[in-house]
Amino acid sequence: MADAPTSDDLRADDLGSRDLVLVEVTDRVATMTLNRPDQRNALNRSLQQRIPEVIAQLEADDDVDVIILTGADPAFCAGVDLKELGSAQPASRRDAADLVTPKSSRGPLPDHTKPVIGAINGVAVTGGLELALACDFLIASDRARFADTHSRVGVMPGWGLTVLLPEAIGVRRAREMSTTGNYIDAEVAADWGLVNHVITHRDLLPFCRRLADDIVSNDQTGVRQMLDTYRRGTATTAAEAWTIEADVSRAWARDNLDPASVEARRQAIVDRGRRQV
Fold first, then answer.
1. Which residues of 161-181 are buried (b: 16+ CB within 10 A; e: fewer)?
2. Can you give the pLDDT at residue 82?
3. Among the CATH numbers 1.10.155.10, 3.40.50.720, 3.40.630.30, 3.90.226.10, which is that of 7-216?
4. Would you tell me how many other CB atoms lie within 10 Å of the CB of residue 210?
């Protein structure tokens, strides 16, 4: 069996032609940039295929612990490529449907264990909003804007919007966004809980990189187990989520808990906490 492609292979791909997704890896953090700026990073067939390929390759890369997902300015992602969708002839309606129907059961990203930080540098609309929601958490530029225009376009979400948007902002606000198609700006998105922080556009990627470095500084087995527990818990009932956490905690204590390692880390944790207060 051939070795899985690495981030070096991804960067080599970019040298020959302008790739749809650019990748840069530094100090165990991969930044992947959607690269159709003239089309506001709209999701044509090729880009829809390329995004999960890159995520899978970075997931398999032992030199990567955290992924930052962003778009080439001026947009994060304007959703499905409506020009491509609108140009489909009646005879190719099935081809048109392929653009807007789910390629997998759980959103635009494949199964992965490494944290994905969404760096929202501009508009995130409809399918682009779903792509953002698939990230583990979001940091927004002050230029970011968000909208769900599925009902205006005449398509239905298939990447988890009706699950993940209410989880982020509450069902009543989600209904408002989806039925009006209105935009909200970055500050409202932060107030509603859609994004964690709003940062000046110039500082967006450096800020995300600092958060990524904080994640890298932790025990990566623990980080990935924590994310898996969150994902399993949010996919079920609250009662079952309590059971999942208890089971994970017992298994971790049995198989992974090392008192000597905890003691070795204790002072560093105390010192870091004092610096952050």
1. bbebbbebbeeebbeebbeee
2. 75
3. 3.90.226.10
4. 10
